[in-house]
Design goal:
The chain is an alpha+beta fold and about 400 residues long. The chain folds into 3 domains: about 120 residues, DNA Polymerase III, Chain A, domain 2, CATH 3.10.150.10; about 130 residues, DNA Polymerase III, subunit A, domain 2 (DNA Polymerase III, Chain A, domain 2, Roll), CATH 3.10.150.10; about 120 residues, DNA Polymerase III, subunit A, domain 2 (DNA Polymerase III, Chain A, domain 2, Roll). It is built from 7 helices and 27 strands. It has a 9-stranded antiparallel β-sheet with strand order 6-2-3-4-18-17-16-10-14. A 9-stranded antiparallel β-sheet has the order 15-11-12-13-27-26-25-19-23. A hairpin with a 4-residue loop joins strand 20 and strand 21. About 40% of the residues are buried.
């Protein structure tokens, strides 16, 4: 194999693929990135693939000159370090010779011990799964615009649980019913629901619901590139695929995904086992106090009030008054001090109320609300609060905290 690569594109690809590769593994080939160079219709392609046996990713680069096709498996950490160190090089040459990979820049030559490509574990195949064949044939296949899919992920993945024995909430619930797509996440103290209408071609297959691991969705955010790019999703009994199309007949224009070109990136992941908790009844429907506030003003006020909190008093008290449409935020931490911040509300409907929340749970959601104004709905100081978008395609439920008087 001998390939001349655009160094910047190669760096971006190895950073993404290396994020999948496990840091420690008893299987040496799993610590590698598989590199495949080939010519397709006279043009060169370089594909980088990595897996931890549960999550798999392969990216294809076209900014390459393939002088000799071939494939090899190279330790991901060494490859990443070398490409990063050669930061002044516009191009790098990759060449294999027996068990060595040579990486050459203008004034540098690295020799890295490699593994035969046959030692690398087989990668899940998107094409066969989407066609309804292979070890895990897809029950449903649909497509969506990259920016819309990314918004669904960003609005929910932050609310997933961390290090809990309840495995089903260690991921995001994906539900597809016809043209309706819904993502749901919870950690038991808050709940985020984001909805969208599919932008791609008519979805195939049955109504489907599955739980996608947080790790896979974090990687998806990193590999999303063009907001207008089309993403094909295939869901099987135990695995999900996300295939990013770089353009062509199956692109974002919503044409037939069956005629889409080979994807530039394919992310696949084993699904989380277990039943996602019933969440519809958690969303309050009888809130009688409605707040309209500027997103940035509210976020700044909560961030300021959170400065004087600690683990024992991890909460900010919010006092809403309807007469002057004001919000007063206060916090207190023993042996540290106290804070008080006031902001004007754009509107307030209902009786005055005082309620306390974990400030991190409020700033987290305000970072993902795209609208300049945010709607907050409340019932009582011991009842959950609700934050939503004006179009109701995003709903966030957060439990209050008890603070000492």
């Amino acid at each position: 194999m001998k390939v001349i690569c655009d160094r910047g594109a190669l760096m971006d690809a190895i950073n993404s693929v290396a994020g999948v590769v496990p840091a420690r593994t008893p299987t040496p080939a799993l610590s590698c990135v598989k590199i495949t160079a080939r010519k397709v219709g006279g043009a060169g392609e370089l594909t980088l693939a990595g897996t931890d046996a549960e999550t798999s990713l392969h990216l294809t680069l076209t900014q390459v000159d393939v002088q000799k096709p071939g494939e090899v498996a190279v330790p991901a950490d060494k490859l990443r370090a070398i490409i990063s160190a050669e930061d002044n090089e516009p191009t790098l040459t990759l060449e294999t010779e027996g068990e060595l990979m040579h990486i050459r820049g203008t004034n540098a030559h690295f020799r890295v011990f490699a593994y035969p490509a046959k030692d690398f574990p087989p990668m899940p195949d998107f094409a066969s799964a989407a066609a309804g064949s292979g070890p895990d044939p897809a029950k449903a296949v649909f497509s969506h615009q990259s920016s819309a899919l990314l918004e669904l992920v960003q609005r929910t993945v932050f609310a997933t649980a961390r290090e809990t024995s309840r495995y089903a909430i260690n991921g995001v619930l994906l539900k597809r019913d016809g043209k309706k797509l819904e993502f749901v996440a919870t950690d038991g103290r808050r709940l985020a629901v984001s909805r969208s209408q599919l932008t791609g071609a008519s979805a195939k297959g049955e109504t489907v619901a599955c739980i996608v691991p947080t790790k896979a969705l974090n990687i998806l955010q990193k590999i999303a590139r063009d907001p207008d790019e089309n993403v094909r999703v295939a869901v099987g009994d135990s695995r999900i695929f996300f295939a990013f199309d770089s353009g062509g007949p199956g692109g974002a224009g919503g044409k037939d995904p069956d005629k889409a070109p080979a994807p530039r990136a394919v992310l696949s992941s084993v699904l989380v086992e277990g039943a996602f908790p019933p969440y519809e009844d958690v969303i309050p429907k009888d809130q009688d106090k409605r707040v309209l506030a500027g997103r940035d003003e509210l976020q700044s006020a909560v961030r300021k009030a959170s400065v004087l909190t600690n683990e024992e008093s991890r909460g900010v008290r919010l006092s809403f008054t309807g007469k002057d449409k004001r919000l007063k935020l206060s916090s207190r931490a023993p042996e540290m001090g106290e804070s008080e911040i006031s902001i004007d509300l754009q509107n307030y409907e209902g009786e005055d109320i005082e309620i306390s929340f974990n400030p991190a749970f409020i700033t987290d959601v305000l970072r993902v609300v795209p609208e300049q104004n945010v709607i907050v709905e409340l019932k009582a100081s011991n009842k959950p609060g609700l934050i939503r978008s004006a179009t109701n395609d995003f709903v966030y439920v957060v439990m209050p905290v008890n603070l000492p008087g």
